[in-house]
User: Fold these one by one.
Assistant:
Number 1:
Amino acid sequence: KNEVEQSPQNLTAQEGEFITINCSYSVGISALHWLQQHPGGGIVSLFMLSSGKKKHGRLIATINIQEKHSSLHITASHPRDSAVYICAVSPRGNLIFGKGTKLSVKP
Amino acid sequence: DAGVIQSPRHEVTEMGQEVTLRCKPISGHNSLFWYRQTMMRGLELLIYFNNNVPIDDSGMPEDRFSAKMPNASFSTLKIQPSEPRDSAVYFCASRTGTGNQPQHFGDGTRLSIL
C-alpha cells in the first residue's frame, strides 16, 4: 500500500466549477505539501501545512492531522488551472509523494 | 532571484554510456534533493544532502547511481553504466532550514537511454 494516496487520479471539470482533490497518508509527518506540475513539467510548491487551513488566491488547502487527510480546493476553476496536483508528506527531511491528480478544466 | 538550475535539460544517450546530471541550488539553501519521475512510479526521492553531507541515499536504485555535493553550490548525479530503464525526468530541489520549509524545484533533466 502506498504511504500517500490521492483521489481522484483524473478529474475533468468545466470552467467555474469548485474542485476538490483529496490526499490520505499513513505515516507520521511534520508537514504536508501540495505541489503543482504544469504540462511543461516544472514543479511549483503551492502550500506547506502542518495544521488547519491555508488560502492563496482561489486555492485553499486543509489538513486534519488526526485523520491523516488533506484536501486541496480550487474555487472558480479556470483552464489555466489544468495541471497535475501532487500531494507529498514530510516524515523527516525528505518528501514522499502521491501519484498525483491530473486536472483538466474545460472552457 | 535565480531558482534551482539543472543541466542539461535534455539528454539522449546510448545504453552503457556514463551520464552526469548537474544541479546548482538556490544560494543560501542548505538542503538539496535529487528526485526521479517516471510514469509508472511517479516522483521518488533518490538522495538528499544537508550541508553537503548525504543524509538519506536509500532511494538510490543501485551501485550504478552515485551523487556528490562537493560544495554548497553544486551537486552531480551520475549513472554509470546507463540502462534504458533509467530513462526518466530527474529533478533537483533545494530548501533552506529544516523540514518545515518548502522545496524549490529545478526544471528537471529529461533523460532518454536508447
Number 2:
Amino acid sequence: NAGVTQTPKFQVLKTGQSMTLQCAQDMNHEYMSWYRQDPGMGLRLIHYSVGAGITDQGEVPNGYNVSRSTTEDFPLRLLSAAPSQTSVYFCASSYSISRPSYNEQFFGPGTRLTVL
Amino acid sequence: ILNVEQSPQSLHVQEGDSTNFTCSFPSSNFYALHWYRWETAKSPEALFVMTLNGDEKKKGRISATLNTKEGYSYLYIKGSQPEDSATYLCAPYKLIFGTGTRLQVFP
C-alpha cells in the first residue's frame, strides 16, 4: 500500500492564483482531513470528510474548498491564494472517526506552499 | 473550538535525562486521546491511544498516562536519546491537535 499520498511536494503561487492540492489514500479509509501547519500553531484542521459525498469545515476553512467524490481522493482547492495561506499542508486519513473507533490518523508527506 | 494546550512548548535536555510533558483538554465529551510523534521533515506518526481514566501505555522508553476527570495526559520519556528529538502532539478529540511540545535531546 502507498498509504496517503500528496502532490505536489512544493508549490509557489502568486497572490490571486488558484490551485488544487491532491490527496489520495489506498487503505479504504472512511475519514480524510486537511491540516495546515504554521510555526508555533501545531496542526489546524481546515476541512474534513467522513465519507464520499460528505464534507465539513474545520477550524480554519476560509479560502479553501474541498470535495469527496470517491473514497480514495480528497483534493483541497485554494480559490484565490493569499500570502496568509503560505504554510505546509498535510492530508490525513483514518478508518473511522465514529465512536467507539479509536483508530489513529495516517498522514501524507505534506505539501509546502508559498504564496508571493 | 476546543482548547487543547500542551506544555512546555519546547524542551532541551541532555542525552540520558528523563523528561515529561503535558496535554490539557476540556474533559467533557472525551472518548479517546492519541499521542503522535512528529520528526522534522516527516509526517506525524501515532504513538498511543488511550481511552479510559487511569490508562497507562508504554512503548520502549516512552510512556503515557491519562486523567479524563481533570482533563490531562502526561507523556514521559525515560533516558532521552538524540533520536527522541521530535515534536510530540496530543489529540484528545480526534480531529483537533494541541500545538505540540518540541523536544531536542543533545548528545
Number 3:
Amino acid sequence: DQQVKQNSPSLSVQEGRISILNCDYTNSMFDYFLWYKKYPAEGPTFLISISSIKDKNEDGRFTVFLNKSAKHLSLHIVPSQPGDSAVYFCAATFQGAQKLVFGQGTRLTINP
Amino acid sequence: DTEVTQTPKHLVMGMTNKKSLKCEQHMGHRAMYWYKQKAKKPPELMFVYSYEKLSINESVPSRFSPECPNSSLLNLHLHALQPEDSALYLCASSQGDRLPFGYTFGSGTRLTVV
C-alpha cells in the first residue's frame, strides 16, 4: 500500500526553465509534507515543507503547492540550475506519527 | 551544530560478523530514527527512539538491534546479517514532540554484507 506516490521516475529540464515535480498521497491523515533532495551516497537534504493549513509555501527558487482536495502536491524550481540535478523525494506525515512516509523519488536532470 | 553524523561511511561485513553503526547529533533533538534505503527505493523506517525510549519498531528482524545510550547517540548493532540486508542505512533526528520540525538526515552508512 503506497501512501505517497511520485509517478514520474525521471524528469529532464533545460537550465533556466521551470522544473515541476509532482506527488500524490492517499492518506487523509497526512497534514505535513516535505520535499527532500538526495545526491548519490548521501543522506536526503531537506528542501521545503508545507502544512495542510496552507496551499503554498515559497523559499527562494523553490515553491511547494498543496491541493488538499486532490491530495496532490508539487514542487516548482525556477530557474532550474545544473546543481539541482538529483533525486527528489516527497514525504508526508502527521502530528504524532513519528515517521515520514516517502514517495519513490523522481530523478531530475538539468541540461545545460 | 546542525548535523547528524554517521560512522562509518562504508562497512563490509561477513554474515557471521557483529558490527555496529553509530549516529550522533548535538541539536538537542529528542527523537532519533533509523531508516534503510535500498537502491532506487525510498527510505523505509526501521526504528524510532523518542526521549531515549524505543517507540516504534517496524517489525525489523532481530538481527538488527538498536540502542540509544543517551539523547545524542543512536547505535544500530548488526549480527548474522544476510546479503539482502546490504543497503544505505540512514539516521535522522527531529525535535521530538514537534515532529516533523527539524527532521534532519545523516549522510548514511553504506553496508555491504558478503
Number 4:
Amino acid sequence: SAVISQKPSRDICQRGTSLTIQCQVDSQVTMMFWYRQQPGQSLTLIATANQGSEATYESGFVIDKFPISRPNLTFSTLTVSNMSPEDSSIYLCSVQRTVMNTEAFFGQGTRLTVV
Amino acid sequence: GQQVMQIPQYQHVQEGEDFTTYCNSSTTLSNIQWYKQRPGGHPVFLIQLVKSGEVKKQKRLTFQFGEAKKNSSLHITATQTTDVGTYFCAGKTQGGSEKLVFGKGMKLTVNP
C-alpha cells in the first residue's frame, strides 16, 4: 500500500482567494491524480499530475483555475484559484504505484468550503 | 467518452440479507476495480479483476468480471452493519490511458 498525507484536511475560504492543497506520498509512485467529490456523489477526475511537465486536464477543468505541480515522484499540489461557492467540495489526491499496478490509493481528502 | 454505470444507486437491506450491485461499462475494460467509502472517509481499494469471467471472493463479498469485460458485479452475503458505505466500481479502458473512470456508486444502508 501507499501512505498519503494530504493537507489541509479542511478549510473555509473567502471567495476570490486561492487555496493550495498538498499531497505527499511515503514512496515514489508513477501516477498521481486529483479528484473532486461533491458530498454524496461520485469522484470526478480533475487532472493527472505529470512529473516535470504540465498536468493533463480532463474536460471541464483548466490550468488557470486548477494549477497543479508535481516536482518529483512523491509530491504534488493542487491550487483552487479565484474560488467561488461552486468550488466547495472534497478534493482527493490519488496515486498508483506503477503503470502495471493500477490499484489506486487515496489521501484523506480536503473538505473545502467557500463563503 | 467512456462511461461506467452502477445500479442500484441506493440499497437498503435488513441485516443478514444478501444483495448484489452491478456495474456496466460502455467500453471494454482492461480491468475493473471496486472501492468502498465509509461515511466521512475516503475510497479504499477492495479488489481488482483482470481476466474475462474472473471471480474473486473476500469473506462475504464475491466479485465477478463479465465474459465480455464490460460488466461486473459485487454480491454481499449476510450483510452486516459494518458493510455500510458507498461502493464504487472503477474501470480502466483497454489500450487507453492510466486513469480510472468511476461509477456513481451504490450507497448501502443496513437496518440492524
